[in-house]
């Protein structure tokens, strides 16, 4: 049986999740794709750290070792920050390698460039994992955009901040205690600044804006406010009124003007995001024909993000196989 060769860039929470998912779902992938999916290399940062990785896989700190692997089909990128992720993916695209990324900061800044370069080099780029964990919002919006005009998006796009607000309300925890619990459960990083400040959700909102209308608002004009200042007393007062605090990312598309924000909002039971709890993410979309739809799913944890990356990967391989069959038939 022929083989699909893949490499992982990064072996943190997300990278390890992709590794585990490919290993544990090998039979299903073989059934879907007709080939074995083989991880041939993993890029890491610290070689002294112990990792449970198959001895047959190349583990390296040098990206050149990976990019030079013959017949490499797909690269999964799960590195934090703009660089070196952007540079690595551009090199991969130039070599005709498909890419799947979960790097929201990098993609918010450089997604347009990467998509354009991928089109020029006739490769595919998957970025479902950059926005809402296991919620297939990118695929859904692409489907809606065939006919619908999207006018508004509201989302809970960060599972960590949503978990903290839920625990503060349900268990009467202080912000500090709820954050510590999120870190203990692996939902929050050692440095949770981007999550609790709204920066993480902001990056995701910019990716959705680029997808919907091929542009983003001026970043300096977007209101970004975190959840750190919300007190237990405020949460209890809202609950007595039947309301809840939610950390909501929102963007409206009206007559080519963009209004965007990420901030804590008090919502009542009529709001589509009212019942979204714990590490769940959800996105409410308003569109011209379909009206209002809401998608919900896990937004934090390695397997939620890994799921989005694997689904992108399968879609890319199937799309490539279909394209090759059509090209072959046209030659005949």
Automatic annotation (TrEMBL):
Catalytic activity: L-homoserine + NADP(+) = L-aspartate 4-semialdehyde + NADPH + H(+)
Gene3D superfamilies to which the protein is assigned, alphabetical: Dihydrodipicolinate Reductase, domain 2 (3.30.360.10), NAD(P)-binding Rossmann-like Domain (3.40.50.720)
A Pfam family recorded for this sequence: NAD_binding_3
Domain Aspartate/homoserine dehydrogenase NAD-binding: 10-128
Domain Homoserine dehydrogenase catalytic: 136-314
UniProt cross-references to PANTHER family, sorted A to Z: HOMOSERINE DEHYDROGENASE
EC primary class: oxidoreductase
UniProt keyword terms in alphabetical order: Amino-acid biosynthesis, Methionine biosynthesis, NADP, Oxidoreductase, Threonine biosynthesis
EC number: 1.1.1.3
Pathway: Amino-acid biosynthesis; L-threonine biosynthesis; L-threonine from L-aspartate: step 3/5; Amino-acid biosynthesis; L-methionine biosynthesis via de novo pathway; L-homoserine from L-aspartate: step 3/3
Molecular functions (GO terms): homoserine dehydrogenase activity
UniProt name for this protein: Homoserine dehydrogenase
NCBIfam families registered for this protein in UniProt: PRK06349.1
Presence of the UniProt keyword Amino-acid biosynthesis in the record: yes
Organism of derivation: Heyndrickxia vini
Top-level division of the source organism's lineage: Bacteria
InterPro entries, sorted: Asp/hSer_DH_NAD-bd, HDH_cat, HDH_CS, HDH_short, NAD(P)-bd_dom_sf
SUPFAM superfamilies referenced in this protein's UniProt entry, alphabetically: Glyceraldehyde-3-phosphate dehydrogenase-like, C-terminal domain, NAD(P)-binding Rossmann-fold domains
